[in-house]
Amino acid sequence: YRQLEAVIDYCDAAGIELTIVLPPMHESIFTDVVRPLGIAGELEKLRTFLTARAVVFDFEYPNAFTANEDNFYDGFHLQGPQKQLRIDVIFGNASFDCVRISRPAT
Q1: Distance separating alpha carbons of residues 47 and 41, to the nearest angstrom
Q2: How far is residue 43's CA from residue 60's CA, in Å, rounded to a whole number?
Q3: pLDDT tens sequence across 30-85
């Protein structure tokens, strides 16, 4: 995580509030890719690292939204209006119950 930590350190030193977005994935990605490859632990380690240092909008966990394959083009990429909703949530113009927002302790 050295390069990522360098970016975060730079933002901290410059007074920049860094925001990280973990995009949603369809549940099949968790079951067919993440778990079989054994990377669930590494993703959780990354999530823990990020939430300690930056504002994180975490859409990347199993929930009602990620269970619906109609929300995704291919499991990773969102369909039409779903893209705009994520942008609206991040910029505070909408609410969405399938996101975890964390801010580092100050």
Answers
A1: 10
A2: 10
A3: 999 999 999 999 999 999 999 999 999 999 888 888 999 999 989 899 988 888 88
Residue 64 CA to residue 36 CA, distance in Å, equals: 22
What pTM, to 2 d.p., does this model score?
0.85
Distance CA 41, CA 61 (A): 13
Amino acid at the residue 104: P
Sheet containing 55-58, strands listed edge to edge, beginning at the edge strand earlier in sequence: 19-22, 55-58, 100-102
Residues 66 and 27: their CA atoms lie apart, in Å, by 6
Bridge partner residues of 72 (DSSP) = 78
Tell me the residue type at 12.
D
